[in-house]
Write a structure and sequence with these properties.
The complex is a heterotrimer of chains A (301), B (564) and C (268).
Chain A: H1 16-32, H2 36-54, H3 57-80, E1 87-91, E2 94-97, H4 98-124, H5 127-137, H6 139-168, H7 178-209, H8 227-248, E3 254-255, E4 261-262, H9 267-280, H10 282-300
Antiparallel strand pairs in A: 1-2, 3-4
Helix pairs in contact in A: 1-4, 1-8, 2-4, 2-9, 3-4, 5-6, 6-7, 8-9
Chain B: E1 2-12, E2 19-29, E3 33-37, H1 44-50, E4 60-67, E5 70-71, H2 77-83, E6 84-87, H3 91-94, H4 100-111, H5 115-128, H6 144-156, E7 162-166, H7 174-191, E8 194-198, H8 202-205, E9 211-216, E10 219-224, H9 232-235, H10 245-253, H11 265-278, H12 295-303, E11 306-315, E12 325-333, E13 337-341, H13 348-355, E14 363-368, E15 371-372, H14 378-381, E16 386-389, H15 402-412, H16 418-426, H17 442-454, E17 460-464, H18 472-487, E18 491-495, H19 499-505, E19 508-513, E20 516-521, H20 523-527, H21 536-541, H22 551-557
Chain C: H1 12-62, H2 68-89, H3 94-113, H4 123-134, H5 136-154, H6 160-177, H7 185-215, H8 221-266
Helix pairs in contact in C: 1-2, 2-5, 2-6, 2-7, 3-4, 3-5, 4-5, 4-6, 4-8, 5-6, 6-7, 7-8
The chains are: A mainly alpha (301), B alpha/beta (564), C mainly alpha (268).
């Protein structure tokens, strides 16, 4: 999960602030502009990157998670939404309309896109980056997150030790009886909680001993902001600006109800779509660029 | 110049009238390395915490502490945080962030240091401590020794003038502890940082420090250079256990105060060589055979039936994992104290798991009274037949007092209520019976935990690193307790890194290496010939007094009076 | 707070005075803290219970044509952030942070430990106990961060802000409604009742609505009813789990937390 993986993905090494802006842009645009063409572009970009990031595992993720949600949404929407003028048939006296089916499909596509982007986010945004980002906004909360991330594996390990210690003392023989199992699980949890709470005094002491509570506090930036970050940031900013302008001047427009209507595929629209696609494909482009570079380097040796 | 000056300091914890510190006077020069030794509860931790106001316990204070001539409480918080560093016992909960780099930077973040300086200082300390290779790791991937080094480095980034350490190696194995001490020495000599450390592993620290302070009952009893400490032997023989072996032997044998007291094994050897050469009578009749046990003793031992046996046991935790036990053999007789020794990863703890029937080995046999231990149903096997105590016994305590905890066991095994008092008396729990398990010392807790296991009368008791973190005084008491247990017929199997303890108290030793037993026999049998893996006394005596493995044996051979 | 009592001193009588003065000062500060906390509680309650739902309602009526998920998500986000930032601005003490972190980690580890049973998790119970013992603010923070951190392990998604809001709200309500001590059977019963109700009516309701928001704009009563109906079985399991864990854990855990607060307090 997000906590462990560290891929050789070029975009993963971009400054987290830039990366966060990119994800925010991708997510908000995918949700706001429910234009089938644009959603399609976004879905495609997210999918390609997810495959680059996760390799074969991306398939499992899609089949197990994204696809069911999409299908469910596509089916459920027309059942509850009866707007639209083109009635196809009646289901238990409820009209099922073409528009609501199209709308359901568009919603499903949108949801799938959002979840796929989140899957990319989870792969790229390791705990380090999240702690770094939250550290800028809210240092104390970021500290809690960091501490919790440290405690979770520690507590899990301790729980195992406690269970073993209890068995060694004959306190609970491993049993197949579910009630006995639940009871011994609870005792373990209880011992764990006791230990964790008592030990937290040490943690608090250790924090205070190192000057926690002084003002002002400054979070350590383990990430630099280099020229590449500036270039990527600039490209993303330009993309946001252009797409925003296009949206403001209604270059993309879509209407689902009462009847489905798309805007004309004018050259301006196509250009705007190209810009949108280019921005969303930045991580993929960076990935491929790096791959090509390495191939060239190797061939020279 | 004096960095720290303590004047007539006394302290009482709230709710009691007992003075935890009774008029302590101490001056610590800048750049010195000071060791504070003394039994648990002598006030050394309290004294140390008084030097760090941010974590000093609340209570009634008398006297004064001056840091660079200023009253320590009057120091601005910022200065106090940066200039006085504090490292505690337990590395696990001292580390508060999930990443090594973040932990290193934490102190500087608090001080609000600017990014550039932070980067430089963090890099500097990572280099000094050799942390670069694990700089980006999660804290949960580190070993215990690495974690404690990280705690130290995380304090050192703030460039403290004074470094305080409260039993920093009590949770570490001897090798990691040795590395930690070497790092401390480097900090002291290369950075000039003043260090005050309380520690039970005095053998390794004595040669490194400039001054040793002995505490007893809340007051300072003696302070001076390490070499001068031989003097206290005549006035307070109970401190013999704290002195290095060479010095103990020296102090209890030689009346000659002209020669310098030896500190290290090397010095001990040259002293012993001279001594033995001087007095022709120094002989070791029973071991002159070169450490071989007389045949008669062996035969007698062989005749006794083993209670628990492990025969060619192979074990691994998962099918694809490497073997941890590779044909391990063990046999434990009734009422004996059997110690399993060996380095990290030799398979000692795993041997317990298999021998106690917690895990089933995939090849080989584990026999209890001649029958497979797995033929006993688990409810009978664990608890009543064998019982295992793992490290960190606190983990298994849930109730608010020791008594409740023991009562729960009495109820579970349907024992007679008088059994509780019986065991409590045996393990000397009287004064702590109604305390919260988290309010008593590690040694006391260890006793309580053993008492808990003893209630259902197990025949074999397995203890994993039971002497970890115990002070020398308590260890002697603990050893006597274990002997008492054995005398009552319980077999005790102790897994330990603590060679000195094993040599002193074990009936038999087994040395583990690479998943198997490479030597087994009486302590003298196993340890006397070894050059490294033996006691300090064994190293001192090797080739000079063959067969001696404890200080008392050397002393006896020289005609001195052995210590209790 | 600086420890005046620990100042070195030569004359014992003067020391007594200082100790008394320090205690007086501490009492006054505590009183001031309490007053401020009361004000914060009222403001927070009004915001969480009145403002946010009404904004969502207005949003639903007003922006019929827009994308609902994003509107609701933004509202939720903007309602979660201020509380977290208020907590941040208060510059919480080390002990508060560690206790919250421990509770968060227990919630997350608990979610992982019971992975084989869907929805049968101690998370809600632990957040409720944190709210009771540490107060409404810490309760909110514990809830919100438990959701956030556990999603760092299990995957963030469009549900994250809702989950943060829902769990935070549960912790907040527990902090407002209950004291840190359970003395009578009735109190325990009420706490368990609250736990079960909060699992279904607060956590369940918010998360089910989130799905409706996410899935599209078919925002009518039928869609909501269907979502709630389909979510009910799982919500009931969660309610059962919460009630169960509260029954077993609430009393000992609250006692332990009280002890630890004292221990932290003694060592400042």
């Amino acid at each position: 999960m997000a906590y462990e993986t560290e891929q050789r993905d070029s975009f993963s090494t971009v400054n987290p602030i830039i990366a966060f802006v990119f994800f925010a842009f991708a997510l908000i645009m995918s949700m706001l502009l429910m234009h089938p063409v644009l959603t399609g572009i976004s879905f495609f970009a997210a999918l390609v990157w997810l495959f680059l990031l996760r390799g074969r595992k991306a398939f499992g993720l899609l089949l197990k998670f994204v696809l069911p949600v999409m299908i469910l949404t596509a089916i459920l929407n027309p059942l509850f939404n009866h707007g639209g003028v083109t009635i196809l048939f009646y289901l238990r006296y409820n009209p099922i309309t073409l528009e609501s089916i199209i709308y359901g499909a568009a919603s499903a596509l949108m949801l799938g896109t959002v979840i796929t982007w989140f899957a990319c986010f989870n792969a790229v945004f390791t705990a380090d980056k999240i702690v770094y980002l939250t550290g800028r906004l809210a240092p104390s909360l970021s500290l809690i997150i960091s501490m919790a991330l440290r405690f979770v594996p520690l507590f899990t390990k301790q729980a195992g030790r406690i269970a073993l210690a209890r068995r060694g003392a004959g306190s609970d023989a491993s049993s197949r009886n579910i009630f006995k199992k639940a009871r011994s699980g609870l005792s373990t949890l209880s011992a764990l909680i006791t230990w964790a709470l008592e030990s937290s005094v040490t943690t608090a002491d250790s924090m205070r001993a190192r000057g926690y509570g002084l003002h002002p506090r400054r979070s350590f930036a383990n990430y630099r902001f280099d020229s590449r970050d500036a270039a990527v940031g600039g490209a993303i900013a330009a993309g946001i600006l252009l797409t925003g302008l296009a949206a403001a001047f209604r270059v993309f427009s879509v209407r689902f109800f009462p009847s489905f209507q798309l805007n004309d595929f004018s050259p301006l629209f196509i250009a705007a779509c190209a810009v949108y696609a280019l921005v969303l494909l930045i991580p993929t482009i960076m990935y491929l660029e790096e791959a090509v570079k390495w191939r060239l380097l190797r061939s020279k040796i | 110049m004096a960095l720290v000056e303590i004047q007539n300091l006394s302290f009482t914890y709230p709710g009691t009238d007992r003075l935890a510190l009774t008029g302590v006077d101490l001056t610590v020069r800048e750049g010195s390395f000071v060791l504070i030794a003394g039994p648990s509860g002598c006030g050394k931790s309290t004294l140390l915490r008084r030097l760090k106001p941010a974590i000093a316990p609340y209570g009634r204070v008398g006297g004064a502490v001056f840091f660079e001539g200023e009253p320590i409480e009057a120091l601005p918080e910022r200065r106090q945080a940066a200039e006085i560093g504090f490292v505690m016992q337990d590395p696990e909960m001292q580390i508060m962030t999930d990443k090594v780099w973040h932990e290193l930077a934490f102190g500087l973040e608090n001080l609000g240091t600017d990014q550039r300086t932070m980067r430089v200082r963090v890099a500097e300390m990572a280099n000094f401590f050799g942390i670069q290779s694990w700089y980006n790791k999660n804290v949960s991937e580190l070993s215990g020794g690495q974690k404690q080094l990280l705690c130290l480095a995380a304090v050192m980034v703030m460039q403290p003038k004074l470094l305080l350490l409260d039993e920093p190696t009590s949770q570490l194995d001897p090798i990691a502890a040795g590395e930690f001490f070497d790092t401390l020495k480097r900090i002291n000599t290369e950075l000039g940082t003043t260090i005050i450390v309380t520690e039970h592993r005095t053998e390794a620290l004595f040669p490194l420090v400039d001054e040793v302070v002995f505490m007893r009952g809340g007051g300072i009893f003696y302070s001076g250079t390490p070499r001068s400490c031989a003097k206290i032997f005549s006035t307070a023989p109970e401190f013999a256990a704290v002195l290095p072996t060479a010095m103990t032997c020296f102090a209890s044998c030689s009346g000659d105060n002209e020669t310098e007291a030896p500190l290290t094994v090397r010095e001990g050897r040259s002293w012993l060589e001279k001594r033995v050469g001087a007095c022709e009578t120094a002989l070791f009749p029973e071991t002159s055979s070169g450490g071989k046990v007389p045949r008669a003793e062996k035969a007698e031992y062989k005749a006794k039936k083993p209670l628990l046996e492990m025969r060619e046991v192979y074990f691994r935790y998962e099918r694809s994992a490497p073997d941890i036990l590779k044909g391990a053999d063990l046999s434990v007789r009734e009422g004996e104290l059997f110690c399993i020794m060996g380095g990290n990863g030799a398979g000692k703890t795993t041997a317990i798991m298999a021998a106690s029937g917690l895990y089933r080995p995939y090849r080989g046999k584990v026999l209890f009274e001649g029958k497979s231990i797995f033929s006993i149903p688990e409810t009978k096997r664990l608890g009543e037949t064998v019982a295992v105590l793992f490290q960190n016994p606190r983990l298994s305590f849930v109730k608010d007092s020791i008594r409740e905890e023991l009562n729960a066991v009495v109820k579970r095994f349907k024992l007679e209520p008088s059994r509780l008092d019986e065991v409590a008396e045996l393990m000397e729990l009287g004064p702590i019976l109604d305390s919260n398990p988290y309010d008593i010392s590690g040694g006391e807790l260890q006793r309580a935990a053993i008492a808990k296991l003893l209630l259902p009368r197990p025949r074999v008791l397995f203890l994993d690193e039971a002497t970890k973190g115990m002070d020398a005084f308590f260890k002697a008491r603990f050893g006597a307790l274990l002997r008492k247990l054995c005398a009552e017929g319980t077999a005790v199997v102790l897994v330990s890194h603590d060679i000195e303890f094993c040599a002193e108290y074990a009936d038999r030793l087994a040395m583990f290496f690479d998943g198997g037993v490479i030597a087994e026999g009486t302590p003298r049998d196993v340890l006397a010939g070894n050059s490294f893996y033996t006691t300090a006394a064994g190293r001192i005596a090797r080739g000079i007094l063959p067969g001696a493995v404890t200080a008392n044996e050397i002393i006896a051979a020289l005609g001195g009076k052995p210590n209790e | 707070m600086t420890d005046l009592a620990a100042k070195p001193n030569i004359a014992p009588t003067l020391r007594e005075d200082r100790i008394r003065a320090a205690e007086q000062l501490r009492r006054e500060q505590d009183e001031a803290d309490r007053k401020r906390a009361r004000l914060r509680r009222t403001v927070t309650a009004v915001l969480l219970l009145v403002f946010v739902p009404s904004v969502i309602a207005v949003g639903m009526l007003g922006w019929q044509d827009r994308q609902f998920y994003i509107v609701s998500a933004l509202i939720i986000l903007f309602s979660v952030l201020p509380f977290l930032l208020v907590f941040e601005k208060r510059r919480p003490r080390a002990r508060e942070l560690t206790l919250i972190a421990v509770m968060v980690a227990l919630g997350v580890a608990g979610r992982a430990a019971f992975y084989m049973l869907p929805q049968f998790k101690p998370v809600v119970a632990i957040v409720i106990i944190a709210g009771c013992s540490l107060g409404f603010e810490a309760g909110f923070v514990t809830g919100a961060l438990t959701a956030f951190v556990s999603n760092m392990f299990f995957g963030q998604g469009p549900w994250t802000p809702y989950q943060m809001f829902a769990l935070g709200l549960v912790g907040f309500l527990a902090g407002i409604l209950f004291r840190s001590e359970i003395k009578t059977k009735l109190q325990l019963f009420l706490l368990i009742l609250f736990g079960a109700a909060a699992s279904v009516l607060v956590y369940g309701l918010i998360m089910d609505s989130a799905y409706v928001f996410m899935a599209g704009k078919a925002l009518n009563i039928a869609a909501f009813t269907a979502a709630f109906a389909s979510g009910l079985p799982l919500n009931l399991i969660l309610a059962g789990a919460t009630a169960f864990f509260l029954l077993v854990l609430a009393k000992p855990l609250l006692n332990k937390l009280a002890r630890i607060k004292l221990k932290h307090g003694v060592f400042r």
